[in-house]
Task: inverse folding
């Protein structure tokens, strides 16, 4: 049986090597902690200050542009409806002025063949721009040849009749859709 | 008696250094996300304000365009619409054109329409008689007028070797 030997009065033995190791380890861990913390914090801080700077610049720029453009935008919002209407009217007038009846007459002169005459012709300056005409022909053959020439222009034959020796046809054409 | 105190002091100092480092580390762990979050908010604000700035720039560009359009409209009215006091001179010019082209006017009536507060349209309904080529020459003269005057409808009728044309002539006046 082992003998228990407790001496409470005995002092712990001082070991300088162990203490040194412990001190070095603690200092190393502390340095590691501190450097990690400092690097992490400084990174976050620099990122934060970068965004704050950007935010400040954006706000200043926005305020500047708001202040400089305010009168112009006020003018626009005040006049927009009026100008819109006027521009619409001006564009309609320009469209109306651009339309040429002479061109349509030239077109008709070009496609009318010998043996046919116009009795009535209606030209309109609108988006549709269809030509309505009543045509006379001296023979059925002339009328058919005239139809053949008009076919590429969306020819619509509304009616045909006979008047004396002449044949009459009520037609519609779209020269724009050539 | 002094000998055992020194290691204890060293140990306590080491523990102090360690805890200080630990606290710094923990603080950085806590503060970094807060800073990051605040930075992200700042980034969001910057981005939002940048978008607003872009929108305002676009609106400003549009406003400038519209302001130019306003000036162009004024130029348009000045250059391409007849003035109120030019009605009689325009009538004289039409009569002169008809005479020059040997056309005979058999009927004329008018209709006024206000397009808006700045433009008034007068529609002349007139019927002219003459040869087809004279009529065409008259229409050509009207088409080449450098003002907002144009035909809205022409109805040609063949009548006893002559051509009769019912014309709707629209003339625009600035008010």
Result:
């Amino acid at each position: 049986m082992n003998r228990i030997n407790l001496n409470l009065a005995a002092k712990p033995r001082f070991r300088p090597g162990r203490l040194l190791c412990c001190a070095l380890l603690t200092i190393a861990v502390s340095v590691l902690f501190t450097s990690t913390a400092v690097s992490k914090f400084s990174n976050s801080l620099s990122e934060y200050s970068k965004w704050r700077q950007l935010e400040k610049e954006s706000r200043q720029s926005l305020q500047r542009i708001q202040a400089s453009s305010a009168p112009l935008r006020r003018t626009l919002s005040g006049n927009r409806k009026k100008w819109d209407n006027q521009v619409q009217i001006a564009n309609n007038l320009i469209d109306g002025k651009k339309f040429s009846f002479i061109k349509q007459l030239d077109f008709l002169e070009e496609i009318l063949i010998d043996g046919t005459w116009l009795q009535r012709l209606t030209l309109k300056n609108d988006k549709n721009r269809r030509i309505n005409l009543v045509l006379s022909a001296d023979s059925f053959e002339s009328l058919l040849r005239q139809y053949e020439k008009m076919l590429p222009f969306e020819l619509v034959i509304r009616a045909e009749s006979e008047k004396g020796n002449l044949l009459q046809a009520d037609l519609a054409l779209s020269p724009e859709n050539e | 008696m002094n000998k055992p105190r020194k290691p204890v002091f060293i140990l306590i100092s080491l523990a102090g250094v360690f805890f200080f480092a630990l606290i710094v580390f923990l603080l950085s762990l806590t503060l970094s996300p807060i800073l990051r979050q605040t930075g992200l908010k700042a980034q969001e604000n910057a981005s939002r304000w940048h978008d607003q700035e872009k929108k305002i720039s676009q609106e400003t560009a549009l406003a400038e365009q519209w302001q130019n359009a306003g000036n162009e409209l004024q130029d348009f009215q000045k250059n391409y619409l007849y003035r109120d006091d030019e009605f009689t001179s325009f009538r004289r010019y039409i009569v002169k054109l008809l005479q020059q082209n040997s056309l005979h006017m058999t009927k004329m009536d008018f209709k006024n329409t206000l397009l808006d507060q700045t433009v008034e349209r007068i529609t002349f309904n007139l019927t002219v008689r003459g040869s087809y080529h004279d009529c065409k020459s008259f229409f050509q003269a009207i088409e080449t007028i450098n003002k907002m005057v144009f035909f809205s409808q022409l109805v040609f009728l063949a009548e006893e070797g002559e051509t009769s044309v019912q014309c709707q002539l629209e003339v625009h006046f600035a008010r």
User: Anything to note?
Assistant: The first helix of chain B runs from residue 5 to 80. Chain B has a mean pLDDT of 89.
